Amino acid sequence: MRWSQSLIPTQKQNPADAKIVSHQLLIRAGFVRQLTAGVFDFLPLGLRSLRKAEQIVREEMNAIGGAEVLLPALQPLSLWQQTGRDKSYGDNLFRMKDRHGATTVLVPTHEEVITELVCGTINSYKQLPLTLYQIQTKFRDEFRPRFGLLRVREFLMKDAYSFHATSESLDQTYNDMYAAYEKIFARCGLAVSAVEADSGPIGGSASHEFMATCEAGEDTLLISDKGNFAANVEKCEIGTRSSDLGGAPTGELTRVHTPNLPGIDEVAARLKIPARQMLKTLVYTVIGKQDDAERVESLASPKWLVAVVRGDHAVNEAKLKRAASEYFGVADVELIDNPTVRASWAIGFVGPDRAVNDPLSVVLIDLDAGNAADWCTGANEADHHVMHFNWLRDAGDKLADPKKVRVVDVRNAVAGDPSPKNDGGVLSERKGIELGHVFKLGTKYSVAMGANFKDDKQKEYPVIMGCYGIGVGRILIAAAESLSDEKGLSWPVAIAPYSVVVTPIKYDGEMKDAADSIYAKLNAIGIDTILDDRDQRPGAKFADADLIGFPVRVTVGDRGLKEGVIEVKARKAAEAEMVKLDDVIARVQELLKA
Amino acid sequence: MRWSQSLIPTQKQNPADAKIVSHQLLIRAGFVRQLTAGVFDFLPLGLRSLRKAEQIVREEMNAIGGAEVLLPALQPLSLWQQTGRDKSYGDNLFRMKDRHGATTVLVPTHEEVITELVCGTINSYKQLPLTLYQIQTKFRDEFRPRFGLLRVREFLMKDAYSFHATSESLDQTYNDMYAAYEKIFARCGLAVSAVEADSGPIGGSASHEFMATCEAGEDTLLISDKGNFAANVEKCEIGTRSSDLGGAPTGELTRVHTPNLPGIDEVAARLKIPARQMLKTLVYTVIGKQDDAERVESLASPKWLVAVVRGDHAVNEAKLKRAASEYFGVADVELIDNPTVRASWAIGFVGPDRAVNDPLSVVLIDLDAGNAADWCTGANEADHHVMHFNWLRDAGDKLADPKKVRVVDVRNAVAGDPSPKNDGGVLSERKGIELGHVFKLGTKYSVAMGANFKDDKQKEYPVIMGCYGIGVGRILIAAAESLSDEKGLSWPVAIAPYSVVVTPIKYDGEMKDAADSIYAKLNAIGIDTILDDRDQRPGAKFADADLIGFPVRVTVGDRGLKEGVIEVKARKAAEAEMVKLDDVIARVQELLKA
After folding, report:
1. Does B226 have pLDDT greater than 90?
2. How many CB pairs below 8 Å do chains A and B form together?
3. pTM for the predicted model, two decimal places
4. Closest Cβ–Cβ partner in A4, A41, A72 for B117
5. Which of A120, A132, A260, B461 is the most buried (most CB within 10 A)?
C-alpha cells in the first residue's frame, strides 16, 4: 500500500480524554478514531492489526478442530428469557422494539443462540464432541465506556462453544483450548498469564482468564512467588488462616464521636489507629429463596446478611455468597439501598454486636476480622464509633451459634497473603487486562433450553458444554500497553499493520526509483510493506514511522544511494545500520525473524 | 476438515416456508439456519462460501487502491439527523434507547459515519482522491423479511466510499469500481448485468446496479435486443413516442354502471374491451415546498398532482416526481390516503376531465395515455365509468395550458417498448437480484455535514463523493438460484465451501488409509478438501455431496482399490470417471481448472 492511498491521521497531541497509553497511542498513530462514547472507527492501520490478530486466532481454532460459524447479533428476547439471562445481564443488554413491536436484543455473547442451534441439529452421541467458534462483532451497553478500546459498546470477539457427551471429553477440549490460547498470545508477541477466575454471569464450574499484565489493567491478579498459582482477585482463595475470635479484652468499651469522616481511613486517622485495627461491617438484604429442604438446618428465614472484615480488607462478594448459601441457605444477597432501612441500621456505623444479636440477621466474619482482641467498630449510631471492642466480651452468646454466625474467608486476597497452595508461597498483586476467558459451563444452558443427545442405548442426556472467549481488539490494547516507548507504538511482526515502511527522503528521481524497487521486492516475497510516498519532511516521516511502530524502517536517501547503501532500522534498535543495496532484502528478512 | 468435526445438518425436505430455490437449498444443504424472521445462523459450509466471496471482493477493492476500514454499526441518531436520513429511512432504521436514554441507531449504510470521518481527517486536496471500504454487518428493520437470505434484517455488505476534489476524479474511480465489480462477479462464476438504476434514498446523480438475472429476482430489468442498453424498471427511460391527444371522437360519451369490480382488469372484462383502452388516473397530494423562484412559472400552489396512464401500464413514481418538479415546481408527492379526501375524489373512478378542470390540480398524462381517440375512464362517481371518452372533446380548454397539463413519459417501461437509444432496439423484461450498486453521490453528504477540503489556493470546497455497495450474502443466493439442479447446489470453485469431497465407501481399513492419503495430499497442495469420515451408507454420502454441490467428489471404494483406481466425478458431469491412483491429484486439479 502507498501511504497516500491510505488514511493515517497521525497527531502530535494526546487526546484530552485519553488516560491510558493504548488509548493515547492508538488514536495518535491513526489506528482508530472515536465516533461516540465507547464506539470507534477502525482506520486502515488499526484494522490491519486487528485482522492479523483475528487470523492467528482463527488458525489456532482450526488447528484444534474448531468449525467456524457466524451467528446473528440480533436475537429475540424470548431466547434470553429461557435462561434467565435477560435479567442477569440487566442493563448491559441492548434492547429495542422492532417496527412490529417485538423486543429484539443486540447481544454480547451467544450461549443461547448456539444452544438453540445444537437443539435443532444434534441428537446423537455420534455427533459429539463438536467445537464451533465465530469471530464476530458484539454489543454491550456499558454503563461508562472508558479507557479507549478497553471498555467499549461494540467490539470484535472470538467466541467458541464446545459440546460433549462426557465431562472427560469437555476436559480434553478445555485443555486443548487452554493450550491454543497460550499459542495465540505467544504468536501475537504478548506475555500472558492464565489465572483461575470466577465464572460470573456466564456460569459454570471452572474457568481461567488469560491476562496481559500491565499498569492499565482493570483486573487485579494475585500470583504466588512459588510460581505455581495465579488467580483473579474475584476468585483468589487464601492459604490457611487461623482465627480464635481474639483473646482477653485490652480496655474498656469506649464510645467516641466521629463526625464528618467519610470513610474508614479518615476515622482511623482521627483516632490515631491503623485501619487494620478497625472492623468494617456491611449489611446485605437477603433476596431470592432456596428450597426449604436446603434451609432446614439454618436460620428459618434470615432477612439480613451481615459481613464483617478488617478495615483494610474488602469483602469478596463471590465468597460471601457461596458462604451464605452453604451455611445459611441464602440464595442471593444485595447491599441494602432503601434509605429508611439504611438509616435504621445506621449504615456506616454498624457494630457487629448488633448484627450478632439481631434475630433476623446471620453474620459472616472474615478470619482476620475475628483474630484480635481489640477493635474499633461502629457504635450503631450515626457519627459514633466504639474503641476496644472485644468479640468474646461484647458480641453476646449468639456468637457461638453456628446457625447464626460463621468465621470464614469472605474477603479479597491481598499482597502478602499466603498462597492457597499452602506451600509457603506468598501472594503478590499485579494489574492485568483480560484477553481471554475459558469456562466449563456444564449443563446450565443445555438443561435450560432442552439441548439433549441420545447415547448408544437411546437414553437422553443434556449436552455438556464449554465456552471460550477472546477479545480480539484487546490483543491490540495489550501490545500497545506493554510494548510501546516514548516515541510511540512498537508492534510485534505478527500483528504489525505493516512489517516494513520504505521511506524515501524525497519521493523523486533516483530515490523514488530505488524506493519503488525495494517496496515492490519486499511485497513480492510476502513481506507486508507500506511506501511513504508523501511529500513531507524526512523528520516528520520518521516521527510518524516511530509513532506507528512498524517493526522495520528502510530509508532511501540520496547520499546513501551514491555510496550504494540504504539505511535499515529496526524499531526496537537504538541505531540504524547502513546496508549494501543488494543486501537490503535479506537484512530486512533477518530483522523480521529476530 | 473432517466432516465429523463440522456441523452440516442436511435435510431431505424443503422447509415449509421456503418459496425460492436458494432458500430451499441453502437450508437443506446445511449452509444456514433460520433463527427468527430475517435472521440467520451461518453454519460452517455457508460461512466458508461467504468468506471466499468476501475475500474476492477484498482483493479487487485492494487492487483499485481501496483502503479497508471497519466502521461501527452503533451510531448516534444525531448524525443521521444532520443529513435528514433519520426520516428518509423511516422505520427501516433500527432505533433504541441506551441505558442513559440516548437514542442510538443500528445502521444499514455508512455515508454519515464515513463523512464524519473525512470531516475530521481530510482537509487538503493533497489527501485526495481516497477510497475507503469495509466488509461489515448491516442491520435493517425490514417490514417483511422473506425469500430466505434475500430480504433479511442482518447481513454482510461491502460498502466503499470515494472522495474527490474534482468530478473527473470521481468519474475515474466510478469507472474503476465498475470494472472491479465486473471482475468480482466473474471470479465468483456469476453472469451479471450492469443496468442503469435510480439512486433512491442514497441520492446522487448517476448509478448502476449489478444484477444477477434469475426467476427469483425481486427487480425487473429491461434489456434492449441491440445489446447496448439495460436498466432497472425504476430507472428505465423509453424511446421516442409521439402523442396527439387522439383524433376525432368515435362515439357518444356513455355512462356505465360498474359495481363490485376490484380493478381495471375486471372492469375491462365486464365491458369487453382490452385494459389498454382504459385510462388509469391516480391522485397524489403535493407535499413539501420548493423555492418560490422555482415555482414562478408554474401553477401558484397546486394541491393535487394527477397522473394518467394507460390501463395496462404502471406509473413510475421517479419519473412522475421529476416531471412534477420540472413542469410544476412540485417538491414531492404521495398518494392520498385520507379517507374523506379519497371519497371526495371518488378514488378508483376518477375521470381525467375532472382533474384537468380542477383549479387546484396539475396533471401529467403519459404519452401512450394521450395517443388514442376512444377511452374508457372513471366517471367521477363510485361504481361508474364512461365509455368513448375523447381528450379533445371531453377534457376542456385547460388541456392546452402547459402550466396545468403536460403529456410526458411517467410510466414504467414494459417489454416491447422502444429502447431509449432510439436505434430500433426493442426492450424485453428479465427478473434480477441486485448484487451491487454504484452511485455518484456528488456533494449531498459533504455539504450536509461540512466535509470540505482546501485547494492549492487555500479555497474551501465540499468533497465530491461516490459510494459503492455489494451484498456479499447475495452472491451465494445468486449462485444457488442460477447454478443448482434437481440434485442440489453446484458451486463455482471460487466460492465452493470446499473444492473437493473425499468419500470413502466405508471409513475403515485400506479405504480409510487411501482416503486419508488423498485428503492430506489435496490439502497439502492448497486444494480445499473435506473428508466424509461419517459412518453412513454410501448412497446417503453421495446424496449429501450432490445436495451441497462440492465441485469434485473423489470416491474411494474397495473394489476400485483392488484394481488401483479411484472414482472421480465433477458435480457438473453426468458420469464419474475411474482414474489410476497415481493420477488422482492431477485429474482433480484439471477438473477444478475447467
Report:
1. yes
2. 152
3. 0.88
4. A41
5. A132
